[in-house]
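Please fill in the sequence for the structure shown.

STRUCTURE ENCODING:
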């Protein structure tokens, strides 16, 4: 009898739907030519929140793992393949979609990704897929503003103690280009001399012996990321 009651209770439980969304960060030049942190959003074409912007994402297929689903959704919506992909958090509050039936509840597994600014230019843009400045977003669907804010905090926090910055850059770069990445992500100016001393003391970069071509003055030295002990 007890077994029958347990079985009956289990059969009446409705599991929430699972989805995977991705916050995709890249650096793009603004009107003044300065790099700023940006991310692509997609416009919803159905209720709820029809017509509002949202993060790229979709349902989790039963035959794929989470990271595969995140990469697939990213590729399908923007044609981008990230240089860095990390699971961020799970978002599943009961009020994520106001007015929906409980049976329609969706729990989103969110990833965040980094894309080089050289690759970001190849992203698909259309009426329903556009880039926005990360710190200047409109009101997004569901709890996606909260998700982006959390991803921004994670990115900026991790940039301070890891070697994520070079993920935005080509294989060879100058210290000025690296500093520009830090300034764009952290949204503040950094003293060039202090930055150089800090980077060199940490051993985060390795001089290549090559110099940047095509400059008017003495060409700056080129570096590559030091992969040893990378976080």
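FILLED IN BY: designer on duty
SEQUENCE:
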């Amino acid at each position: 009898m007890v077994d029958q009651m347990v079985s009956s209770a289990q059969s009446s439980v409705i599991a929430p739907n699972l989805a995977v969304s991705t916050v995709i960060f890249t650096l793009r030049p603004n009107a003044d030519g300065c790099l700023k942190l940006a991310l692509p959003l997609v416009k919803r074409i159905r209720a709820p929140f029809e017509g509002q912007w949202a993060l790229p994402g979709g349902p989790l297929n039963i035959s794929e793992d989470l990271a595969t689903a995140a990469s697939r959704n990213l590729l399908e919506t923007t044609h981008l393949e990230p240089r860095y992909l990390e699971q961020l958090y799970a978002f599943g509050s009961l009020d994520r979609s106001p007015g929906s039936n409980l049976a329609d509840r969706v729990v989103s597994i969110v990833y965040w990704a980094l894309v080089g600014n050289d690759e970001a230019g190849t992203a698909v843009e259309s009426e329903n897929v556009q880039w926005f400045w990360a710190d200047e977003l409109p009101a997004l669907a569901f709890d996606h503003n909260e998700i982006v804010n959390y991803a921004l905090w994670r990115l900026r926090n991790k940039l301070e103690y890891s070697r994520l910055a070079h993920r935005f850059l080509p294989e060879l770069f100058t210290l000025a280009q690296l500093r520009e990445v830090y300034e764009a992500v952290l949204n503040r100016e950094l003293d060039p001399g202090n930055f150089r001393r800090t980077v060199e003391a940490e051993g985060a970069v390795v001089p290549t012996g090559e110099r940047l071509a095509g400059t008017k003055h003495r060409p700056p030295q080129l570096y590559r990321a030091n992969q040893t002990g990378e976080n």
